[in-house]
């Protein structure tokens, strides 16, 4: 069952590779880690802490990049690449200052725009304490949910495999369906954020 490359890496290097993988692709790695927790390969608490750090640390780095950048220079150098204009950045500033929770959620789930949106929080000088107070609880909840989903699918595999020969395919189909739903939700968040900042 554990033959695909991310899982093989996790089996070989365990916690040492979990953090870098969580930095790169948090949700998918969180689900895989949950599956490995259900099989006793990872312990729940260390896996959760590593996944949480892998989710929250990049958000802080993106904020700092924005905070250390000059607004005009950033727009001149990168604005055209991401479709960020002064008008759109002003709209983002309003959203960050007045609807921080909504902005954090949309930023983290707007697949493909997440990095630039999180950088924009620093660019518009949102206070770090305010930013962090929304990012961390969301990262905690998201990490817990993704681990739980992986754990559920891993446990389901153990139970189903006793009765059905193709249980791996059923569990894999469940994971694929969840990932499709996750992708659709992130695309919706991306479009919603773009609508909000027009």
Question: Averaged pLDDT, please?
Answer: 79
Largest sheet: none
**Oligomeric grouping of the chains:** single chain
The Rg value, from CA coordinates, equals 19 Å
Unreliable segments of 5+ consecutive residues: none
Secondary structure class reads mainly alpha
Shape: elongated
Query: How many discrete structural domains?
Result: 1
Q: Distance between the terminal alpha carbons, to the nearest Å?
A: 47 Å
Question: What is the count of β-strands?
Answer: 0
Fraction in beta strands = under 5%
H/E element string?
A: HHHHHHHHHH
Total helix count? 10
What is the helix fraction of residues, given as a range?
over 70%
Structure description:
This protein is mostly helical. It has one domain (5-196). Helices cover 84% and strands 0% of the residues. The chain contains ten helices and no strands. Helix 4 (44-68) packs antiparallel against helix 9, helix 6 (86-98) crosses helix 7 and helix 7 runs antiparallel to helix 8 (114-123). The radius of gyration is 19 Å and the shape is elongated.
In short:
The protein is mainly alpha-helical. 84% of the residues lie in helices and 0% in strands. It is built from ten helices and no strands.
What distinguishing features does this structure have?
198 residues, mainly alpha, 0% strand
Describe the protein's topology.
Elements: H1 5-13, H2 15-24, H3 26-38, H4 44-68, H5 71-82, H6 86-98, H7 100-109, H8 114-123, H9 128-161, H10 167-196
């Amino acid at each position: 069952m554990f033959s695909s490359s991310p899982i093989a890496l996790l089996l070989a290097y365990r916690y040492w590779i979990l953090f870098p993988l969580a930095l790169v692709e948090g949700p998918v790695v969180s689900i895989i880690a949950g599956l490995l927790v259900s099989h006793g390969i990872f312990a729940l608490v260390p896996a959760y802490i590593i996944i949480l750090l892998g989710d929250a640390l990049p958000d802080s780095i993106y904020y700092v990049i924005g905070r250390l950048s000059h607004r005009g220079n950033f727009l001149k150098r990168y604005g055209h690449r991401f479709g960020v204009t002064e008008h759109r950045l002003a709209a983002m500033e309003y959203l960050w200052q007045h609807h921080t929770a909504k902005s954090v959620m949309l930023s983290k789930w707007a697949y493909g725009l997440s990095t630039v949106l999180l950088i924009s929080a620093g660019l518009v000088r949102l206070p770090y304490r305010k930013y962090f107070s929304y990012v961390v609880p969301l990262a905690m909840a998201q990490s817990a949910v993704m681990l739980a989903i992986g754990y559920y699918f891993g446990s389901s595999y153990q139970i189903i495999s006793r009765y059905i020969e193709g249980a791996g395919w059923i569990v894999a189909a469940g994971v694929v369906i969840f990932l499709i739903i996750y992708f659709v939700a992130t695309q919706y968040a991306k479009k919603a954020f773009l609508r909000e900042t027009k």
